[in-house]
Amino acid sequence: MLCRNQLHIYRSIFPGSLGFVMYNIFVGILQAIGDSRHPLYYLMISSVINLVLDILFIEVFHTGVGGSSVSYRNFTGVQRNFMFDSAADPQQLSV
Fold this sequence. Notes:
The protein is mostly helical. It contains 3 helices and no strands. The longest helix is centred in the first third of the chain and has 29 residues, at about 5-30. The model has no long low-confidence stretch (mean pLDDT about 80).
């Protein structure tokens, strides 16, 4: 039997999984053309954003476990947007 917090987490994280999958697809594409630095930079930036959002949602807004899942969803969206920007600008990808 699932408790209410677990259902909230699953419902919050599942929409963010699409961004995570898209990020991994773009990382594979970039690594295939020889660029492994940009995905690493985007992952580092997104991880810092995730930490800040975790603290913000859990400690400041007192959202508890659900705040962590919302933070994860936003984190994957930021990653996906970084990768879309890289794919849209071929000049940036020159290594």
